[in-house]
Structure formats: structure tokens, C-alpha cells
Design goal:
It contains three helices and 22 strands. It has 413 residues and is mainly beta. The strands form three sheets. Strands 11-12-13-14-15-16-17-18-19-20-21-22 form a twelve-stranded antiparallel beta barrel. Strands 1-2-3-4-5-6 form a six-stranded antiparallel sheet, with no helix packed on it. Strands 7-8-9-10 form a four-stranded antiparallel sheet, with no helix packed on it. The longest helix has 9 residues.
């Protein structure tokens, strides 16, 4: 004779989700399922991983920490093992050490599915890959998701601290949005993005544009990659050193080109920018230059050429080291007909004032970093020294800054 089933636990899932993907509460029953014993509430991170469980007295009964692909790093509390819904709010089988995703089981230690993709090669060449090897960016509540499109919103806060005779402290706030689409193996990607920035008391340097007011950037980028999907913690640069985005899954190696428009109300000026990026594993090299735009209607815009180089290296455990150099070179009014040599080496006092070079280093995790920068005319002095004009020397003292950047991000897949 088979025993009668007894209700031991019941679950409340987020009713705003189209399917049961986020657990909110667990009720433990007693007296053969006739009376409720206790109600336990769940908290989650941005990727719907269960992080804590609290009872009705607000006592923490469980706390979890995970490796990138779901392996448990920390499981504390009397309900930590009793509860089976943990990583991605999916059911964990402790005996098999697998996470059940409705259609497939995930091996969190290896970071891969244990069975083939149900749609076979139509979902990409890697039949066992888990969310394009980017679990910190994507989630997959059924084990069937094809991560070929998505978007993100990021808020970047930059605080610049002047040192010594340098200008006073300043800050900028940047709101950046992006939408992208790509094939499953990250071989081809298209991306649209835009940034709205507000600056207050920012020094007039190429690094941040200078002044008080708003700055608008928008553009598009295309990428070609090879080497298979590859996760990275390096933020996506939109323009110069601000308006960063959370990392987008890409191929192990990638070449991308973007074209960006920028309107700076602080100066004011209108420019367009070429943006080239090379990605090799966990190293990203960026080159960006600007050029005048709408010079027929706005002939005084863009009184300088700008070239920017940035090198981002992921050192391990999400730590990123960034090197940045930016050169500003003053040029003549766009309506004047002058040779390149005259423009660079025979300048008006105003054009000479635009011959700035800026360099520095920062280190941090994700979009949160702390850096040191200096800007000076030394770059232009070096150019004149190399061409034999040793008498040329600009007397401006270098300026030094400490910089703190923080990123708040929201992802939508």
C-alpha cells in the first residue's frame, strides 16, 4: 500500500514574471501539511541568484556566495542545505552536484551543460556552452536561451580631485544606453549606443571636456570576432574615458569599428569620432580620433585634433588595469587654408593653448576604479624637439589629478 503524499514545503514565485523564474518565499508545513510552520523570504542579486533567506523575525537563516558558473563558495545557516533553489533560482541536486534548468542540467564546476543543445547547431557551434561563457552578464532560466541580442543601461559617476596648483575638484555623471545583436558564436555583432553627461567644475582638459553643462554622444559600432564566445569583465568604452558600459560578451579575439557623434555644450563644439578597438583574450586596445562635423554651418567648431589611446588589461579575479594617453593638438580656424606643417608648428596663442597631452593609469574592478592622471604641454614640446626646434617651449606647469569612477548598471536580456 502506497503512503499518502504529505505537504512539506510550498513556494511563492514572482507573479510579475511570465514564468516561474524568481522565488520569493518558502513555507514549511507541519502536522502532515495541515498547518503552516514558518515562512521564509528570499533575497537575490541582479542575476536572480538567491543570496539570503530570512525568517519572520528577520533572522538570516541562510547566506550564499557563488563562483561565476554557480559553484557554491559560501553556504551558511541552518536552511542553507535545506533549501534547494539557489543559483539562478534553479533547483540544485546536492548528490549529483548539478543544477536543473528544466530542459538540461548544468555542471557548475565545469561551467557547461552535461547534455547537448536541443536545437543543435542552430544555437551555435558549441553545443555545451552556458550563456556564451558570460554568467555574470546573462542568465538562462530554461536551458534554451540563445543570447544573440540584449541591452544595458549604466550610470557612471566620476570624481576628479585636483592636486596642488591644479584646478578645484569636479565631477561628471554619465547615463549610457546600448542595444546590440550578434550571432550565437559572437562572430558578428552590431551595436547602437548613446550617452548623456552632466559636468560640474570639471577642469578644461581633453580628458573630460571641461566646464559646466551637458554633453551628448551617440553612435554605432560593428565587430567581427573569432575564437569562440569569451566572457570578460572589461567595461565597454564608448568615447574617451567616460560613458562606459558593462561588458558585452564577445569572441576571444575581436576587431570593432565605431562612429560616434558628440555635442559638447560646455565649449560649445560638434565633433565626430572614429573608434577602433582590438580585443585579444583579456586585453583591449582602443584608438579614437575626432574630426570636425558640420563645418559649413558651424565653422568655428573643433579647434583641435584629438587622438586617444587606451589599453585595458584584466589581471585576474576581475581586477582591471587601464592605461590612457590623449593628445590634443590645436589647429587653425576651419575656414583658413593652411598647410599641415603651418597648422601644427606655427600657431596662434589660442591654438598653442590647445596643445595638451594627458596620460595616466587606473586600477579597479568592472566600472569601479581609482586612477592618477596628469596633463601638460610636454607632448608638444617633445614634437618640436624631435624636429629640431629646440627653442620652442611652453611654460605651463603640469596639472595632476586623482580620479574615482563608479558604475551602476542594469542589464536587460
Amino acid at each position: 500500500m502506497n503512503p499518502m503524499p504529505v505537504l512539506e514545503k510550498s513556494y511563492l514565485w514572482d507573479p510579475t514574471e511570465p514564468t516561474a523564474t524568481r522565488i520569493l518565499m518558502m513555507t514549511c508545513w507541519k502536522e502532515n501539511g495541515m498547518a503552516a510552520g514558518e515562512h521564509l523570504c528570499f533575497t537575490h542579486d541582479a542575476l536572480k541568484n538567491v543570496t539570503s533567506i530570512f525568517d519572520e523575525q528577520q533572522v538570516q537563516r541562510a547566506r550564499y556566495e557563488y563562483a561565476p558558473f554557480g559553484a557554491l563558495i559560501t553556504a551558511q545557516g541552518d536552511m542553507a542545505q535545506e533549501n534547494r533553489f539557489r543559483f539562478s533560482c534553479e533547483c540544485m541536486d546536492d548528490e549529483l552536484e548539478l543544477v536543473y534548468y528544466n530542459y538540461r542540467h548544468l555542471n557548475p564546476l565545469d561551467g557547461r551543460w552535461i547534455s547537448r543543445d536541443p536545437i543543435a547547431e542552430n544555437g551555435g557551434e558549441n553545443l555545451y556552452g552556458f550563456v556564451s561563457n558570460s554568467p555574470s552578464v546573462y542568465y538562462d532560466y530554461q536551458g534554451l536561451k540563445n543570447n544573440n541580442s540584449g541591452g544595458a543601461i549604466a550610470i557612471n559617476f566620476t570624481h576628479l580631485f585636483g592636486m596642488g596648483s591644479s584646478p578645484s575638484d569636479g565631477y561628471s555623471i554619465d547615463l549610457t544606453l546600448t542595444a546590440f545583436t550578434q550571432d550565437r558564436d559572437c562572430r558578428i555583432r552590431g551595436e547602437l549606443f548613446g550617452t548623456v553627461s552632466y559636468r560640474k567644475n570639471m577642469p578644461s582638459t581633453p580628458h573630460q571636456g571641461g566646464g559646466d553643462g551637458f554633453d551628448f554622444s551617440w553612435g554605432a559600432k560593428g565587430a567581427v570576432g573569432w575564437g569562440g564566445p569569451h566572457g570578460s569583465n572589461i567595461p565597454e568604452r564608448i568615447l574617451n574615458n567616460y560613458g562606459k558600459l558593462p561588458p558585452i560578451p564577445h569572441a576571444q579575439n575581436e576587431i570593432s569599428y565605431g562612429y560616434v557623434f558628440n555635442f559638447n555644450s560646455c565649449i560649445p563644439e560638434i565633433t565626430s569620432h572614429n573608434l577602433v578597438q582590438l580585443k585579444f583574450d583579456n586585453v583591449v586596445l582602443m584608438y579614437q580620433n575626432d574630426q570636425s562635423w558640420l563645418k559649413k554651418w558651424h565653422p568655428t567648431t573643433d579647434q583641435a585634433w584629438t587622438a586617444t589611446f587606451a589599453l585595458d588589461i584584466e589581471l585576474g579575479k576581475g581586477t582591471i588595469c587601464s592605461l590612457l594617453y590623449q593628445q590634443f593638438t590645436g589647429k587653425a580656424n576651419l575656414n583658413e587654408k593652411r598647410s599641415l606643417t603651418d597648422t601644427i608648428y606655427h600657431q596662434t596663442p589660442y591654438q598653442e593653448s590647445l596643445n595638451w597631452g594627458l596620460g595616466g593609469i587606473s586600477i579597479g574592478q568592472g566600472g569601479n576604479s581609482f586612477g592618477f592622471y596628469t596633463d601638460t604641454h610636454a607632448g608638444q614640446d617633445l614634437i618640436h624637439w624631435l624636429i629640431g626646434d629646440k627653442k620652442f617651449k611652453q611654460t605651463d606647469s603640469p596639472r595632476f589629478y586623482f580620479e574615482q569612477q563608479m558604475m551602476i548598471e542594469t542589464k536587460k536580456k
